[in-house]
């Protein structure tokens, strides 16, 4: 869609502040001036291109995420009225996913899923994650070049997701392709009829995959799919369709986002060498660096809600069931909450960013995502004594909700030979089966 920009009279038009401007590669490369303008000029903005309210102030976003309705999947009647009945198979899956439900349905699914995704399970994945990262990095030529996205940021969450779900690790490339496809649909504002057959095919294949996985003997009993099948809270169990829908949700939620945390996080550090050096000098800053990188380049830029009833927000009257887009990436640069918000500061204190959302839908996989981000960064910092961006234009994905690079080429120098040969887990198990090409 083409969007006209400022008028000759200099008057601000609707299109000046529309999130559709993210389709312009220059705006996509640096969306923060647009978010700052929105927050300063019209923090609760009616975007006539999107037929939605766009909210950019931290406090308003917290209210939207806490109080507004997440139940936004269109019913089959609505899809038919919109001439989109072909999308019904997708809506049938989404309507059972926790992300698109309000209490009590949301509370029920989330508690059953939490019973299946315990802190012990996340901890058990921790040592594997270090093995996977080391194994991926060991495939690189010493003192060479790498594409951080293709060589690390994509395969790592794919392998971890297969492990977490308890399906065969060899399936990780297939899981990645499906999740990329589904994320494409979720992350773009406009329904793209050309892409619909592919999304429908993907939905059918993912559903069939998890239905068959549930019956297979090689499904790991400690994986999330088995645990969802067996989860029981006071006699309440998930149906087969709910297990499938939420396995798909977790598979997608865990991949694109973590890829972007590692990719954009590495870029931010390379663009701020003083911060990279600070980190190299003091590795105990890794957890706080990951939080700052999540704030600074949030992998999920925005999400949506519907107003449960007529309501007032930031001085604007919002009618019942109108769509509201909460731009978390703008909240995370709100100077009211983050002093000098455009500065990357890996020692930032009181960093209560909303990159993982807020309230009852707060990211279910945040502990796992944090561990993956921390280990990936730590290993890169330890294994590369220096690294730099390769010259060339960076290309950001045109998925408007999920912010990430298509590729990130760097040159690096390996650290002293002392680091080599450490391709073993903290438990002493070598995991060469991971990430085979
Ligand atoms: C850096 C990585 C990640 C980021 C930035 C991220 C971000 C988010 C955000 C912002 C939400 C809330 C969306 C909303 O309120 O509309 C969310 C929800 C969710 N995330 Fe993540 N996520 C990440 C990794 C993961 C991982 C690794 C998993 C899987 C283990 C996961 C699974 C989920 C699920 C299932 C939900 C829905 C929770 C609910 O509705 O109650 N995410 N995530």
Please, what is the average pLDDT? 89
Q: In order across it, which strands form the biggest sheet?
A: 1-2-7-4
Q: Find the structural class using helix and strand composition.
A: alpha+beta
Hetero groups: protoporphyrin IX containing FE
* CATH topology call: Cytochrome p450
Can you offer a commentary on this structure?
By secondary structure, the protein is an alpha+beta fold. It has one domain (14-419): Cytochrome P450 (Cytochrome p450, Orthogonal Bundle), CATH 1.10.630.10. 46% of the residues lie in helices and 8% in strands. The protein is built from 17 helices and 9 strands. The protein has helices at 25-29, 32-41, 58-67, 76-81, 88-94, 105-116, 119-138, 148-153, 155-165, 172-186, 196-213, 224-230, 240-271, 273-281, 286-296, 328-331, 366-383; strands at residues 44-47, 52-55, 145-147, 303-306, 311-313, 316-318, 323-326, 384-389, 409-414. It has a 4-stranded mixed sheet, with helices on one face. It has a 3-stranded antiparallel sheet with strand order 3-9-8. The longest helix is centred in the middle third of the chain and has 32 residues, at 240-271.
Keywords:
alpha+beta; disordered N terminus; Cytochrome p450; 437 residues; 17 helices; 9 strands; four-stranded mixed β-sheet; binds protoporphyrin IX containing FE; three-stranded antiparallel β-sheet
């Amino acid at each position: 869609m083409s969007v006209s920009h400022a008028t000759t009279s200099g008057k601000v038009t609707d299109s000046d502040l529309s999130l559709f401007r993210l389709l312009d590669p220059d705006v996509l490369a640096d969306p923060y001036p647009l978010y700052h303008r929105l927050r300063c000029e019209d923090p609760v903005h009616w975007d006539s291109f999107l037929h939605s309210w766009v909210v950019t102030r931290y406090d308003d976003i917290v209210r939207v995420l806490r109080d507004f309705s997440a139940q936004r999947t269109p019913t089959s009647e609505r899809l038919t009225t919109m001439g989109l009945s072909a999308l019904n198979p997708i809506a049938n899956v989404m309507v059972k996913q926790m992300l698109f439900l309000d209490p009590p349905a949301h509370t029920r699914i989330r508690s059953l899923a939490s019973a299946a995704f315990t802190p012990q399970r996340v901890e058990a994945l921790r040592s594997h994650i270090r093995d996977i990262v080391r194994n991926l990095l060991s495939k690189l030529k010493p003192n060479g070049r790498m594409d951080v996205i293709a060589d690390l940021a994509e395969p790592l969450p794919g392998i971890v997701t297969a492990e977490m779900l308890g399906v065969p690790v060899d399936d990780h490339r297939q899981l990645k392709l499906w999740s990329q496809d589904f994320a494409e649909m979720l992350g773009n504002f406009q329904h793209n009829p050309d892409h619909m057959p592919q999304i429908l095919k993907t939905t059918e294949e993912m559903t069939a995959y998890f239905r068959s996985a549930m019956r297979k003997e090689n499904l790991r009993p400690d994986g999330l799919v088995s645990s969802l099948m067996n989860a029981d809270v006071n006699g309440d169990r998930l149906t087969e369709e709910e297990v499938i829908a939420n396995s798909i949700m977790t598979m997608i939620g865990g991949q694109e986002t973590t890829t972007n945390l590692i990719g954009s996080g590495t870029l931010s550090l390379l663009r701020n060498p003083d911060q990279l050096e600070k980190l190299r000098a003091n590795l105990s800053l890794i957890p706080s660096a990951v939080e700052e990188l999540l704030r600074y380049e949030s992998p999920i830029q925005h999400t949506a809600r519907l107003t449960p009833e007529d309501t007032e927000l930031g001085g604007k009257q919002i009618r019942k069931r109108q769509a509201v887009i909460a731009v978390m990436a703008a909240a995370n640069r709100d100077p009211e909450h983050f002093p000098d918000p455009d500065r990357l500061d890996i020692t930032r204190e009181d960093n209560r960013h909303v990159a993982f959302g807020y309230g009852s839908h707060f990211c279910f996989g945040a502990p796992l995502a944090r561990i993956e981000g921390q280990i990936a960064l730590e290993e890169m910092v330890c294994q590369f004594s220096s690294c730099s961006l390769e010259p060339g234009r960076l290309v950001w994905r045109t998925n408007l909700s999920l912010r990430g690079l298509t590729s990130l080429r760097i040159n690096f120098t390996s650290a002293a030979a002392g680091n080599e040969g450490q391709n073993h887990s903290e438990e002493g198990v070598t995991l060469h089966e991971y990430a085979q090409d």
